[in-house]
Amino acid sequence: MKLTFNLTDIDNFDKKEYTSAITNYFNSKNVSHTWRSYYFNKHYGYRRMFAYMVKQFDNKNIVELGTDIGGGTLALSYNQTNNVYTYDNVIKHSRSLFDISTIENVTPYVLTSEGTKTAMGNVLEKADHANRVLTSDVIFFDVDPHSGEHEDEMFYYLNENNYKGIVLWDDTNGQLKKWFSDKCKEISEKYPNIRVYDLLKYSWIEGTALMCFGDQEIILN
Ligand SMILES: C[S@@+](CC[C@H](N)C(=O)[O-])C[C@H]1O[C@@H](n2cnc3c(N)ncnc32)[C@H](O)[C@@H]1O
């Protein structure tokens, strides 16, 4: 897979295509104004970047960890040829404002954390879901709290199980700033197979980082 990130292109994509496409979509689904304003809030920077990114590949499997009310999910599903599997550990009541299960290429799962051994055990202790994570092409990891515990569990799990896709980590310029800088150092010392790209400039203020576990080509300009 080859991905290019260019800020002018993202701006043009947003102005010429994405804002109007998504507004038309909201109109066609009678989406509430509360949910629309949530979608275009401070997180919009990574949402438009994701929509721009997913247009660069077809027929891939994307896993989102941390659905919340589905802002990331909607952006990741913009290219309808891809399948998006999104996971949360609780149902969000606010989801009644916009039901992500109405998006054709999205399959949402709510898997409780009750009784699991680890922070991400709700997904990783279940063979079919763990396998979906490991065989995915792209993962967006956005699980609260961004303490590094969930992120570390996922990072080592992917590495130990020979994951070959791409992971996008949310909040790497916010709550995960220290985790991200420690992880970059650790990767440079121990994991030559992983390449890291900071997407802060293309994304939102709290940051997004991309890690390639396989032989993907990433062009930042
Ligand atoms: C920051 S929100 C996700 C935001 C969303 N990705 C977006 O772009 O709008 C974090 C979510 O992670 C969920 N979460 C926490 N622990 C989890 C776990 N073990 N598995 C899946 N989701 C989890 C929380 O319930 C919360 O909805």
Contiguous uncertain segments of 5+ residues: none
**Alpha-beta content class:** alpha/beta
Assigned CATH class: Alpha Beta
Radius of gyration: 17 Å
Biggest sheet overview: 7 strands, mixed
What general outline do the C-alpha atoms trace?
A: globular
Classified in CATH, the superfamily is Vaccinia Virus protein VP39
Write out the distinct hetero groups bound to the structure: S-adenosylmethionine
- β content, as a range? 15-25%
SS field, number of helical segments: 8
Mean pLDDT: 96
What is the second-level CATH architecture? Answer: 3-Layer(aba) Sandwich
- At the fold tier of CATH, the topology name is Rossmann fold
- Considering DSSP H and I runs of 4 or more, what fraction of the residues is helical? 25-40%
Which sequence of strands runs across the widest sheet? 4-3-2-5-6-8-7
Name some characteristics of this structure.
221 residues; alpha/beta; Rossmann fold; two-stranded parallel ribbon; 9 strands; binds S-adenosylmethionine
Structural write-up:
There is one protein chain. The chain has 221 residues and is α/β, with parallel strands linked by helices. It has one domain (2-220): Vaccinia Virus protein VP39 (Rossmann fold, 3-Layer(aba) Sandwich). It has eight helices and nine strands. The strands form two sheets. The chain has a seven-stranded mixed β-sheet with strand order 4-3-2-5-6-8-7. Helix 4 (71-76) links the parallel strand 2 (61-65) and strand 3. Helix 1 (7-28) crosses helix 3 (44-54). Residues 64-66, 68, 71-72, 87-90, 113, 119-120, 122-123, 142-144 line the site of S-adenosylmethionine (SAM).
